[in-house]
Design goal:
Helix content: 10-25%
Number of strands: 20
Structural class: alpha+beta
Number of domains: 2
Strand content: 25-35%
Number of helices: 2
Order of helices and strands: HEEEEEEEEEEEEEEEEEEEEH
Radius of gyration: 27 Å
Amino acid sequence: MKALTIAATGMKAQETNVNVISNNIANMRTTGYKSQRANFQDLLYQTLRRQGATTSDAGTQVPAGVQLGSGVRVVATPRNMTQGDPESTGNDKDIAIRGEGFFQITLPDGRTAYTRDGSFELDSTGTLVTADGYTVNPAITVPQNASDLSISNTGQVQAKIGNDTTATVLGQIELARFVNKNGLEPMGDNLFLETASSGAAQTGNPGDAGYGTLLQSYLESSNVESVSELSSLISAQRAYEMNSRIITAADEMSQTTSNLGK
């Protein structure tokens, strides 16, 4: 019976759906995490009677045909790129983005990655880096004798050097934008990579037209909504159970049919 294979595709799709939901819930406290959802698409149909087919010499037509579907599949897992709530940390090197844009990060192999996670620190040379030691691009170095580190909402980094009473500009943080943010490839570690689908990165300073602003001593929290995820989990579980019952019912019908000849 086709119902067996159709229900199997439904169970497989809901299993993927639960995996996506579980990953969202697991990352509820991940800085800058953007939740995902599973999008479904029906599979090919077998046409037994085509709608619009002529049924008589008088030209009468079939108003609705007969098509049998073959199941469902997960076609995409797009991300919800809405802003997460800013949370105060008290760390002067933490930065949250309010609005559009990603921080640019230089990877050890020279590639540029992008992130919304602004939990930065200084390495042994005073360079601003991520938690994994990757350099923020453009590179910003804070002298050892610097104090009163300040990062403006437009990305200008300043600090007082030694006994100076006035601040010195140390660098400028830039942001990158993409035409299609959902086209970015996640690589883990809160980082994304540019792809042909995302389009080329467009860089600019925070506060420029189309770019967000920065908030020092804050981090952007995950945008996962626990109530929504739990509701989706329950729905996925129910859908999985219903598909499993279809398999049970189809199996019982097959057994009944086979017993007719005994």
